[in-house]
Specification:
The chain is mainly α and 248 residues long. The protein folds into two domains: 67 residues, no CATH class; 157 residues, Four Helix Bundle (Hemerythrin (Met), subunit A) (Up-down Bundle). Helix content is 76%, strand content 0%. The longest helix is centred in the last third of the chain and has 37 residues. Bound molecules: fe (ii) ion (FE2) (2 copies). One fe (ii) ion binds next to helix 7, helix 8 and helix 9.
Length: 248
């Protein structure tokens, strides 16, 4: 394991240097298949301590993730009501909103005036409301799940997720505002404004969810002691749920 660790560190540094060849990703897959999510978290921390900034780590994370895809597919066997089960169910709903947003953005781009997209405008309002409503989901992660993970010594992955939340929340809020104030803009200006916001959300939100479902949540379930979850559920209940949260 120790040798493996050194190998993995070397690999991550190569990735940092900008190399992301297929061979390197293949090598990464092999190396990472024998390592648990929490060991990986500790390793990431060590690498950061050796001088990789968190920002670089965040960029690195995506290539890194590609290498880990196959090694971290262990299914979580959680019952409804478990805080992580609820978060994962909410992810499915959020991904549904993102799909719709992607579709209507294309319709907006194809149209020439507000008159052609009346239904889409209503849908955009609806989607943006739900995406902002998902802030409660982020809050349960930030105020309950991440601190519990940090208590177990896993600090870097939650920090990266927190940073991603900042940009996601800003874009969701911008979408919400634009959906409500579009009438102040000419149609072409509206589309121009919508495009970058929508493409940020449609690209980054699914990536964020993927990292949580496949890395952060399995890590949490593994690292946080079983008996701690009842109290975490109480804290989640206090924060509350989204209007679209399935039974929990
Ligand atoms: Fe999150
Ligand atoms: Fe999430």
């Amino acid at each position: 394991m120790k040798n493996n660790k050194e190998e993995i560190k070397k690999l991550l540094k190569k990735l940092k240097a900008g190399s992301s060849s297929k061979e390197l990703v293949e090598k990464g897959k092999k190396l990472l298949s024998g390592i648990s999510p929490s060991e990986l978290a500790i390793l990431e921390q060590e690498i950061i301590e050796e001088g990789v900034t968190r920002k670089e780590m965040r960029k690195l994370c995506d290539v890194h993730l590609e290498a880990m895809k196959d090694s971290l597919t262990a299914e979580l066997d959680l019952k409804p009501g478990h805080p992580v089960h609820t978060l994962m169910e909410e992810h499915k709903m959020i991904l549904g909103f993102v799909d719709k947003l992607r579709l209507i953005t294309t319709s907006f781009k194809c149209a020439k005036s507000y008159d052609e997209v009346k239904e889409e405008l209503e849908l955009l309002k609806h989607i943006s409301e739900h995406l902002v409503e998902a802030d409660k989901h982020h809050q349960r992660e930030e105020d309950v799940l991440f601190p519990a993970l940090e208590k177990q010594g896993v600090t870097e992955p939650p920090e990266i997720m927190r940073e991603e939340h900042v940009d996601l929340k800003a874009n969701k809020a911008a979408l919400y505002k634009l959906a409500r104030n579009h009438k102040k803009l000419k149609y072409a200006d509206f589309v121009k404004k919508l495009e970058p916001i929508s493409s940020y959300i449609c690209e980054e939100l699914p990536k964020h969810i993927y990292k949580e479902d496949n890395i952060l949540y399995p890590m949490a379930v593994q690292a946080i002691p079983g008996k701690a979850w009842a109290q975490l559920k109480v804290e989640c209940d206090k924060i509350g749920y989204c209007c679209f949260t399935p039974a929990h």
